[in-house]
Description:
By secondary structure, the chain is mainly α. It contains twelve helices and no strands. It has helices spanning 2-5, 8-16, 19-37, 39-62, 66-92, 96-114, 123-155, 165-172, 186-189, 195-206, 221-225, 232-244. Helix 6 (96-114) packs across helix 7. The radius of gyration is 33 Å and the shape is flat. The model is unreliable at 174-195, 209-217, 221-226 and 238-245 (pLDDT under 50).
Amino acid sequence: MLSYILPLPIILASLRTGYAAGWSVMTATMFLLVVLMGPLRAISYVLLHGLMAATLGSLWRRGCNFWLTLFTVGAVRMIGQLTYVGLSSAVMRENFFSFILSNVYAMLDQVAVVINIGGTPSPLVVVIVMLNLTLVNNVTFCFVLQVAYRAFLSRMGYDVGKFPAYIQQVIFGSKVEDVTDLEPDSSHANGGSGSKFISSIANFLATPITGSSNTTPSPNPSSRNSPALPSAAEASTATSTPEAA
């Protein structure tokens, strides 16, 4: 879940101020993580989230189309992921690539048994399959991320481009309006924040809740037919009158 939230500050900075601001936010976050959690955590953040978010914000700022953005960001994240695996192998003194290749080799062996193909795959085929599976994984992640962010940020007034027509129809339905057809707010064009979105929430919270304060409790029906009880002074006067007589 954090993988879908961590890129958001860098993307917002790129859309509001420019792609240079997104790279600056990534650099500042990296140095902050170096101080708080150490250099390894900072490098892992940059490789897995920072480079992808900065690239995505830059491509959206430049107005690139959906598919170019998708495959470019997926390739950037794949490179960062492979670099992270190599860095982890060097730090922990374990060859994690050998584990990954052995698992891919076992998977190909099982597939060959199922479809009745003899022989064993060559190391080159195993490496190519591993790279393709890694690319598919990252492209799928970036597709979900891009769809969620485009739908969310376009509602806030940011210009992030339009969905392809068939993706729009499959995800949102044919009767749903294009979420990216909204014109960006003038405050966003001038570098402002989502003031329209925030003001609508503030107006909703400031609306008084009516209904319970204006209603008066209805009298108990049984109290209308019951006689009124005498007060304490009347009761004492009534008891003292016979004694005086």
